[in-house]
Structure formats: structure tokens, C-alpha cells
Amino acid sequence: MLISGYSVVVLVLGVSSGAAFSVGGTFLTASQKAALEETAAKVATPGKGITACDEGPATIGGRFEAVGIENSEETRRKYRQMLFTADGCEDYLSAAILDPETLYQKDDNGVLFPKVLSDRGIVPGCKPHLKIYTLPGTGGDTVMQGLDSLNVRCKEYYDAGARFAKWRSPLVIDTKLGCPTDLAIKANMQDLARYALICQSEGLMPIVEPDISLTGDHTLEEAVDVNIRVQAELFKAMIDHGVYMAGSTLKPNIVNPGKACPISYSVEDIAKANIFVLEQSFPVAMKGANFLSGGQTLPQAAGRLSAMNKIKGSGPWNLSFSWSQALQLPLLDLCKGKGELQFEEMSKLYVEELKIASAAALGQWQGNDGDGDHVGKKAEKKKKEKKASEDSTTEEKKGLFAALFG
Predict the structure, then answer these.
(1) Catalytic one among 251, 272, 287, 312?
(2) pTM (predicted TM-score)
(3) Catalytic: 251?
């Protein structure tokens, strides 16, 4: 038709179903899309999150050995069994990420772990990536290996009971070396997109994990800039590859200043930075983000996640957790000097930790003052000096009291 002398083409879209749209998942049938989206929706259940138990034998073995526990396949099996069957854990867990070894292990009754989890309403998934590789000439940037034969492994994992996968692409901020480089960002995000596409073709809902490390002295503002660049590149790559966005999930790092950053930030500052990053490019088609802990303690991670949920406003996403170290390291501390895993004590503490994580995912966790703050190195030093001075004064007073009245 003509309007004011201009020729206008009217495009009519069939909006009653997604059939008329061509962006994303064109290789999938309607039932395949529905299955992927159903898994993504289950993972994004409000108030529930993911227990990340996908450490390889060497990684979990290092944690065992640090507290005097033997690293054997049977020890790993029993430990994971506790994480999957602790009384009441299903009230706070929507999913569990398994290492391939664990995917094929059974509980004490001979039931495969994926069925143990599914019977408790917890979606089982698997980690398909392999080892990281340093990109030459980038100052230390890395990529994750494992795309070769990924389709074969995904099919095997699906047949074994997994319904999603998770791929981690680690990056480090180093402002002096210019890391992460544009090359590293593009390479890693393209890999995540290709992984997601392959997963969906084999029936697994892909969790994409761009993991920007806490190491370094970068500021919160610098972290925001890098995270926006990384996530924007990721989502563009996924769309370019034809990934069905509604049938996928994001597992991002919590945007933080580097651990060695000298500037202090409140938990509210950090929460606002994270919501700002998501608002720049996170597709509303994706149902949620499950943040990794990445070396943060449980109070730090819970404080920051809870603060995010308190201020997210009209953001449509479910913001929850996918934690490993924050949950597991305190459990293993219970075993120090004991020589064996303390299952009863560990399972009770684990469920208490999950209650904290669940409350944080709903924006309802109230910790202690300062939980989730970043204390800059200068402020931290002054804080320690003040405490040492106060302790010294207290000891002096005790000595004087003893001299006068002892």
C-alpha cells in the first residue's frame, strides 16, 4: 500500500505459535523444542538451584586429600550419593551437574544416579567439556577443548539419563596484559554457541558458562565492561548459530571486582552492577541465570545473590545458584583429622547451606552486616591492624587487672 507517497510492505507473522519465526532451532521439531524448554523451565524453578558436582577425579581428589580423605572411585561415589540423597535436599534443588564418571555410578541399592535424582524431582545433567588450552600469543588466554565428537558423547549422556549439559569457558581479566583479548572472547563464545547447538540436536538442554575469574586487581567498573563484552558476544554467537534460546540456560559468574582490587564496594554496588550487565544483552527468551560461586564463600555468594533478587525489579529472569565450592568446602572441613567422610554431619550441614542458597535465590536471605561486600585491600589491611590493636589493648587490660587484683 501507499502512505504519503511511500511504498510500504506489510509483513504478517503467525504469532499464535513459533512456527512462522525462523530465528533459532529451525532444525528442531515442535516436540523437541518443547522438551528443551521444559527442562530449562524446571531448572529455573523459583527458590531452587543447581548443585554442581561435576569436578573430575583429580579436582575432587585434591579437595579430599586436603582434609585427609582417600581419593578413590568408591569414596567419590559415596560422597556424591550423600549430595544427591541428603534428607530434604530436593526442596532446594532443581538440578545437579554430574561428571561423566558419576553419571554411570549407582547408589547403594544399585540404582543409577540419574534415576535417583529424577525420582526426587532433580534434573540430572552432565559436563561434556575436556581440558583447557592456552591460546598462543594472547598473554595467557585459554579456550576449552572437547568439541570433537561432542555429538557422540551427548547422545551417550542422554541415553544414560542426562537431560542437560554444561560447558565452562574460563576467562581472566588482566588490564596490564590486555586480557581477555578480543580473540579469546570470540573463540570462547563461538565454542559455547557450537556446543549449545550440538547439545540441542541430541536432546540436551545446554547451560552456557562464561566464567570470568575473581583473580586480579580490576575494579568493579572494569569487570562490568568485560562482562558486557563477553555476554553480548555469547548471545550473538548463539543466535548466529541458530540455537533455540528458550531451550537454554546461562551460568554466569557474579560480576565482582578482582580479589586484589584496592577499592571497597558494598553488596548493593555489586548487585546493581550484575543487574546492569544482564539488562544490556541477556535475552528475555531465556528463563534464568544460575550464578557460579567461583571461589566466593557461601556468605559472600548468598549475600550478593540475595541483593540481586531484591533489586532486579521488572527483570523477567529467575536468578539462582549453581554452586560447588561454596557448598562443598565447608562440608569437607568437617572431615579434617577424621580420616573418613562424616556423612551424617555433612548431610545436615549441606541441607542448611541449601536453605541459605534457596533464600538468596528468592531475595530473602538476611546474613550478617558486610556479607557480600568487597573489602578493598587497603581497607582490609586497616581493619586487620585495628583488630590487632584492639586485641593488644584487651590483653594489656587483662594483664593490668591480674596485677591489681590477682
Answers:
(1) 251
(2) 0.88
(3) yes
